[in-house]
Amino acid sequence: MTPAARVAAAIELLAAVEAEPRRPADAIANDYFRARRFIGASDRRAVAERAWGVIRQRLRLDWWLARAGAPAATPRLLVGAHLLLAEGWDLEGLERGAFPGGRFAAAPLAPEERRVLARLAGQALRHPEMPEPVALNIPGWLLPRFRARFGADLPAAAAALEQPAPLDLRVNLLRASRAEAAAALAAEGVETVPTPYSPWGLRVTGRRPVTGTRAFREGLVEIQDEGSQIVALLADARPGLRVCDYCAGAGGKTLAMAAAMGNKGRIVACDVSAPRLAGAVRRLRRGGVDNAERHLLVPGDRWAKRRAGQFDRVLVDAPCTGTGTWRRNPDARIRTRPEDLAELVRRQREILAAAAELVRPGGRLIYATCSVLPEEDEGQMQAFMAARGDFAPIAPRALWPRVAGEAAPFPGACGEDAPWLLLAPHRHGTDGFFVAVLERRPP
Ligand SMILES: C[S@@+](CC[C@H](N)C(=O)[O-])C[C@H]1O[C@@H](n2cnc3c(N)ncnc32)[C@H](O)[C@@H]1O
């Protein structure tokens, strides 16, 4: 593709994302590229990176465009503004190289577009007059919650959340040790380093794609953020236990827990979404997991009633705003609305109440979100414990040496005996996660 064709494709992709505001942008991008198989891998990466750059900087680009008098932030203006403010293009280069017109390029700038973009030429993306939410790149309605969470660390936390995330892998101990997996990947040109906290993790240092390697195809590694690995570690799923992964999705944490169990005992992956659960089948097979079953939860589920009080571990990896994953899903930053948060908080409460019934006395309920918002995290735990005096938290620090090994550093920050763990990109290099482990007291 020519540079101008890449710009045109980024504009087209952004328009597709704008057209479906309730669908995740990565799903839209997958469809976009699937319908255009002629776009090769490096062009695809360049187009997606530019579109993602725009989405990541959307609040600031909107601010600049409004200041320059644009009546609307169209995909053409957004990409033009990104090229000028974030990618260092000048106006002349923009007109000749990005909007030249012709068959595979964006149409020339209209006079009004040119007038707006000319005002941005030579400017930097950040400006001292930006209001605080724009300067920090956090929507205004979420800012008080972020401040409550991070306090004086807010600028560092916000800055870390707008960086692209690293690519983390979890070594599948059913197939290989961490050293063996690292060697297998290196033999195929994929360099990695051990993750700092998770004893199962490898962080890819280069840019070689992993999913095409034999190591991946043969199930030696799975793609999984170190934060997710830490959640699965803290579930402390041991060989022989009965484990329920209540919000299993496509089984990311089911796989990790099954490996920790050495395939011994029983693990049930539940979810209300049949397509998501179906996505787990191939991954479980590739990972060599044979102690897992899947269960689709339906309203008034008798399965759950029959299994009340039977599980040693129940993990609730709850649906949430995903405010901890903005590095990977930058569209969530601009798409999540206050009413979404209210609905998620309500759903989390219901899920917790239902999942708690499955835990045997002496067993554990593990609650996790990839959100950093207090009402989805400790707020949810406080409400749950007020209603359920038979559950009490175990400090993650106390569990850590057992689940991760004496040598693994604890991803602290909340205090040594804090009743829950909060992971954050600026402190741990992981996505933002909240994890609480609650033990059900015997009657
Ligand atoms: C954060 S995702 C889970 C990700 C998954 N555990 C993993 O590690 O890949 C939350 C999941 O909760 C599921 N979910 C939503 N409402 C639910 C409910 N009422 N009961 C159980 N699962 C639910 C969603 O379908 C979604 O797959």
Automatic annotation (TrEMBL):
<protein>
    <submittedName>
        <fullName>RsmB/NOP family class I SAM-dependent RNA methyltransferase</fullName>
    </submittedName>
</protein>
<keyword id="KW-0808">Transferase</keyword>
<dbReference type="GO" id="GO:0032259">
    <property type="term" value="P:methylation"/>
</dbReference>
<feature type="binding site">
    <location>
        <position position="317"/>
    </location>
    <ligand>
        <name>S-adenosyl-L-methionine</name>
    </ligand>
</feature>
<keyword id="KW-0949">S-adenosyl-L-methionine</keyword>
<dbReference type="InterPro" id="IPR001678">
    <property type="entry name" value="MeTrfase_RsmB-F_NOP2_dom"/>
</dbReference>
<dbReference type="InterPro" id="IPR054728">
    <property type="entry name" value="RsmB-like_ferredoxin"/>
</dbReference>
<feature type="binding site">
    <location>
        <position position="301"/>
    </location>
    <ligand>
        <name>S-adenosyl-L-methionine</name>
    </ligand>
</feature>
<feature type="domain" description="SAM-dependent MTase RsmB/NOP-type">
    <location>
        <begin position="157"/>
        <end position="441"/>
    </location>
</feature>
<dbReference type="Pfam" id="PF01189">
    <property type="entry name" value="Methyltr_RsmB-F"/>
</dbReference>
<feature type="binding site">
    <location>
        <position position="271"/>
    </location>
    <ligand>
        <name>S-adenosyl-L-methionine</name>
    </ligand>
</feature>
<dbReference type="InterPro" id="IPR018314">
    <property type="entry name" value="RsmB/NOL1/NOP2-like_CS"/>
</dbReference>
<keyword id="KW-0489">Methyltransferase</keyword>
<feature type="active site" description="Nucleophile">
    <location>
        <position position="370"/>
    </location>
</feature>
<dbReference type="InterPro" id="IPR029063">
    <property type="entry name" value="SAM-dependent_MTases_sf"/>
</dbReference>
<dbReference type="InterPro" id="IPR023267">
    <property type="entry name" value="RCMT"/>
</dbReference>
<keyword id="KW-0694">RNA-binding</keyword>
<dbReference type="GO" id="GO:0008168">
    <property type="term" value="F:methyltransferase activity"/>
</dbReference>
<comment type="similarity">
    <text>Belongs to the class I-like SAM-binding methyltransferase superfamily. RsmB/NOP family.</text>
</comment>
<dbReference type="Pfam" id="PF22458">
    <property type="entry name" value="RsmF-B_ferredox"/>
</dbReference>
<dbReference type="InterPro" id="IPR049560">
    <property type="entry name" value="MeTrfase_RsmB-F_NOP2_cat"/>
</dbReference>
